[in-house]
Design brief:
41% helix, alpha/beta, HAD_sf, globular, hydrolase activity, 7-stranded mixed beta sheet, HAD family hydrolase, 7 strands
């Protein structure tokens, strides 16, 4: 976990206003969910196995250990989880080194959050080595804190990543808004007690109490996020 802002700067003050915004990375801020699937397809092809397209919805948004473990079990590939993790990260890095496209509305939203001085954290199931490479495109200075999947004991869908982010910026999770693109990430944020904006990238996500589903980040701005917290 890396932070550029002391947690003491954002201590809660008893108000019911929006205190922080946490954003997922792959498929939410950057258009890379397809990169992961392409990397998985290529690695397993090298191992002599063809991935079923239906498995894509199963592995999207999950931690590397869960996704890789599922694919090993489904294909019967003769490879350990540790070995596969290395190969997948290498293939993914090759792709992001060629450029990382931002999702529509991401650039504008990050700039708006900065203008309003709203503490913003990047919370991802990806490993630190991947996040650091993507931050070169996103901009490190836009985030008070970044949390990687290999820096927590239990990653998404467990709430630990989002509880860690809230603790890191000194915010009440109930007064934080989370933007996620997968059911796994949404589950983690909701279990942490945060309000959620779902922007589905691959698989659909249904609306529910405390959760709003939008088609694009272009529909999300600071007044919208504040209303999510206050209800008015």
């Amino acid at each position: 976990m890396t932070s550029t802002v002391p947690a003491s700067l954002f201590r809660t003050n008893g108000s019911s206003a929006l205190q922080a915004v946490f954003l997922d990375m792959d498929g939410t801020l950057v258009d890379t969910e397809g990169f992961w699937w392409d990397a998985e397809v290529e690695v397993f092809a090298d191992l002599g196995h063809r991935l079923d397209e239906a498995w894509r919805d199963v592995v999207v948004g999950g931690p590397m250990t869960r996704s890789a473990g599922y694919l090993i079990e489904s294909t019967g590939a003769d490879i350990t989880l540790e070995e596969l993790t290395v190969l997948l990260n290498e293939k993914f890095e090759q792709r992001i080194d060629r450029g990382v496209p931002l999702m529509p509305g991401a650039e504008r939203l990050l700039a708006e959050l900065a203008r309003h001085s709203i503490p913003t954290a990047l919370v991802s199931a990806s490993h630190r080595r991947i996040i650091d490479r993507v931050l070169a495109s996103l901009g490190r200075d836009r985030f008070a804190l970044t949390v990687a999947g290999d820096e927590v004991v239990r990653t998404k869908p467990h709430p630990e990543p989002y509880l860690t982010a809230a603790r890191g910026v000194g915010a009440d999770p109930a007064l934080c808004a989370v933007i996620e693109d997968t059911a796994t990430g949404v589950a983690a944020a909701e279990a942490a007690g945060c309000r959620v904006v779902a922007v589905p990238s691959v698989a659909p996500i249904a609306p529910s109490p405390g959760r709003v589903v939008v088609r694009s980040l272009e529909e999300v701005d600071v007044p919208f996020l504040r209303t999510l917290i206050t209800g008015i």
